[in-house]
Amino acid sequence: TQEMSVPVEGVAGGGTAYGFNDGGLNSEPLKQSTDPTEVPTSDLVHVWCMPNTVNVGSQETPRPLETINLLAARNERESFQIAMRPKVSWVGSTPSGSVQVQCSDLCSSAGDRLVVGQSLKLRRVVPVLGVPDALVPLTQLSLLPGETSVIWVSIDVPNGQPPGQYEGEITVSAMKTDGGCSDNLGKHEKDQLCVELKNCLDIMEPIEGKPMDEVVERIKCASSSLRRILFSPSFAEFISTNGSFDMMEEDAVSNLAVRIKLRLTVWEFIIPVTPSLPAVIGVSDTVIEDRFGVEHGSEKWYEKLDLHFKWLLQYRISPYFCKWGENMRVLTYTSPWPAEHPKSDEYFSDPRLAAYAVPYRQVIAGDDSREIYLRKEVEILRSKPHWNKAYFYLWDEPLNMDHFHNVRKMASEIYAYAPDARVLTTYYCGPGDAPLAPTPFESFVKVPNLLRPHTQIYCTSEWVLGNREDLVKDIVEGLQLENREEWWTYICLGPTDPHPNWHLGMRGTQQRAVMWRVWKEGGTGFLYWGANCYEKATVPSAEVRFRRGLPPGDGVLYYPGEVFSSSSEPVASLRLERLLSGLQDYEYLKLYESKYGREEAMGLLEKTGVYMGPERYTLEHRPIDVLRGEVYNACRPS
After folding, report:
1. From CA 48, how far away is CA 576, in angstroms rounded?
2. Closest by alpha carbon to 480, among 500, 456, 502?
3. Strand bridging mode 68-74 / 258-270
4. What is the pLDDT of residues 322-357, one digit of tens each?
5. Which Pfam families match (predicted)?
C-alpha cells in the first residue's frame, strides 16, 4: 500500500484514529472500473475540505464540498486540508486509482497575484504510528479503497502583498492508466529514480568488515528505499495492472475535474518579521552527525547545520543547536561559527531570529582556553546591535544543590566579562537534597531566590503549573523587573492530556493551544527541548523511531527528508505547522491588546470560546476563525 512505502516506525501497522469521526461509514460496494476520461471525477471520488486543526484519519467519512474562505494578514501562513476518498475503482485492481491535484494562482480584482510554487504549496499528509503527521512532497496521489487520503494546502502571504480579496481554484482530476510504465517517466522522474537507486547502492557498498548490527541496519535501509521506489506513483499502477499513467488532454481534465473554489482575504496587518515571543527550540547536533554521517566540525557538518537553521526560521522559531553532557549540563549555541565569523553576524542579525544562544565553551576545539574563548566571544557580541537577543543556557533542570552551585559558578564567570548578560535556567523543582519549603509546590516557587542574581530568565515547566493560575500569579509577582528578570515556560514530556502539548495524537486545537496558554499566562518567552530528537540511526533514510520512554512525538517536530524521498529538505509535521499557527495567533492577540488593553484581549479570548485555561479550550475550529475575524474587524483601518 501507499503507506507501506514510507519507512516511519509503525506506519505500516495502521493504528486507530485519534479524535476522528467514530460513527462508522456507510460504505458503497465497488462498482466496475470507470473511464475517467468520460466520467466526471466527482462520480469517482469524494472530495471535501477540512480546517487545519482537524486530524483527518484514514476512516474519515466524506462531507459536502464547500467554498474555502480564509483570512490572512501579511507575512502570515494560512492553511487547510483537502480530503479524498474513492467511490469506485477505475483501474480494476488494489488501488482505486490515481488523482492529480493542481492549483491556480490567486488573483485580486486589482490584478495582484499569489503565485503557485511561491506562495501556494501542496503537500501530502502521511500517517506516523497511524496518526496523520508528516507533510511530504506531493506528486501524483494513489487512492486506496475504503481509505481517505489528505493533502495539506498552505498559503504564504508576503510582507508587501497588497490587501484585498483574492480568488482561485484547486482542481482534482482522476487519472487514466494505460500502456507501458517506464516510457511515460519524465526527465525529472527518471533523475529522481536514478538518485534513489544510487542511494541504495551507497547504503550497501562497502559492507565488508562492518559490524553485523550495522550490516543489518544497512540492509533494512536499502530494503525500505527499494520499497519506497516500487510503491511510488511512478510504479504503483505498473505493479498492480502492468500499466502506466496516460495523461489526459488538458480540456478533458478541465471539463471533468472537481473544482474547489478558494477565496482569501488579505488584510492590512503585517505579522512582525521579528516574533514578539522568542520561541527557542533545540536541535540535536549529535542526531545530525549520526544520521547524516558528518564529522563534527567538517565542511559538510556546517552545511547540514546551516540547512536546518535556515529551514526552521520559516516557522517563527529561534533554533539553537545542543549537545548534552553529564548531569544535564548542556552546550547550546545558535551559530556553530565563532562570533568573529561573518556567518555568525549573518545569523544573529537575521530579523526573523528573536533570540540566540551563546555557547559557554568552544563548539569546535581550539587553542584558546575556555576563559579566553568566553571573553573574546562576549567582547565581540556586546559590541553588536543584536546583543539584546543573546542568552546563555547552561544547565537543564538542576535537581540538587551541586547542580545549582554549578549554574551560579558558570554564570559568575560570564558576568565577569558581561555584567548585562542573560542566563536562562529551566527548572521544575527545587533542590531535592535541600528543600526550600515544606511542600514541593512552595519549594518550586522559591527557586528564583536560590538562583538570583545568577539567572535572568526563569524558565519553568508548564507540567508543574498544571491548571493553577494562582501559581502563575505568584511567579510573575515575584520577578524583579528592575533587574531585567523574565519568566519563560517550557514543555517536556508533560503536561499530558487534556493540557496543551505537541504529542502525536493530541487534537489539533490542543497542539495550537500551547501558544494561547503562553499569551494568557503572560510569559515573555518559550523553550522546547528538541525538534529532531529521535532514536539514533547512521543512514539518512533509516526508519524514524521515537525515543523509548517518551510520549510519541515528544522531542520530534520534523523528519529527515531522505526518509520519504531523495530530497534532503526536512519534512515538517502537522504539529510544527500548528506551532506556527499558534505563534501567529499570539501576534493577533498582541495587536488587539495594543489597541484595547490586556483585559479586553483576555475577554475576547474567552468570549469567543477559544481558550479559558489549560483544561478548557475549544475542541472545534470555528471559534478560532471567530477570534481572528473579531481582531480583523476591530483592528483594520477604517
Report:
1. 24
2. 456
3. parallel
4. 998 888 899 999 999 999 999 999 999 999 999 999
5. GH123_cat
Question: Do 429 and 440 meet the contact criterion of CB atoms below 8 Å apart?
Answer: yes
Rounded Cα distance, 64 and 48, in Å: 6
Burial 576-605 (b: 16+ CB within 10 A, else e): bbbbbbbbbbbbbbbbbbeeeeeeebbebb
Q: How many CB atoms lie within 10 A of CB 116?
A: 16
Measuring CA to CA, which residue among 19, 533, 587, 575 is closest to residue 324? 533
Structural element, H or E, at residue 238? helix 233-241
Q: Residues 12, 13, 18, 21: is their CA dihedral positive or negative?
A: positive
SS3 18: coil
Closest CA to 207 of 538, 504, 444: 538
pLDDT tens by residue, 78-137: 999 999 999 998 876 667 889 999 999 999 999 999 999 899 999 999 999 999 999 999
Those residues whose C-beta lies under 8 Å from the C-beta of residue 57, and which sit 6 or more positions away, are 17, 18, 20, 127, 131, 132, 148
Terminal-residue alpha carbon distance, the chain:
54
pLDDT in tens, 520-558: 999 999 999 999 999 999 999 999 999 999 999 999 999
User: Which cell numbers hold the place of 186?
Assistant: 519524465
Mean pLDDT across the stretch 130-155?
93
What is the grid cell recorded at 248? 489526459
User: How far out from the chain centre does Cα 489 lie?
Assistant: 19
Q: How far apart are CA 106 and CA 113, in angstroms?
A: 6
- Closest to 164 (Cα-Cα) out of 111, 120, 116, 118: 111
Phi and psi, residue 526, nearest 5°? -150, 145
Euclidean distance between CA atoms 492 and 551, whole angstroms: 10
Give 158-182 as a 3 state SS string.
Answer: CCCCCCEEEEEEEEEEEEEECCCCH
Q: What is the 3-state secondary structure (H, E, C) of 283-311?
A: EEHHHHHHHHCCCCCCHHHHHHHHHHHHH
Q: What cell numbers appear for 494 in the block?
A: 508533560
Q: Measure the CA angle with vertex 282, ends 278 and 284; round to 5°.
A: 160
Burial class (CB in 10 A: 0-12, 13-18, 19+), 233: middle
Closest of 333, 316, 347, 326 to residue 282, by C-alpha: 333
Q: Which residues contact 583 (CB under 8 A, 6 or more apart)?
A: 275, 277, 279, 315, 316, 317, 515
Largest CA-CA distance found in the chain, in angstroms, rounded: 80
Rounded-to-integer distance, Cα 502 and Cα 575, Å: 6
Q: Determine the Cα–Cα distance for residues 512 and 502; give it in Å rounded to an integer.
A: 8
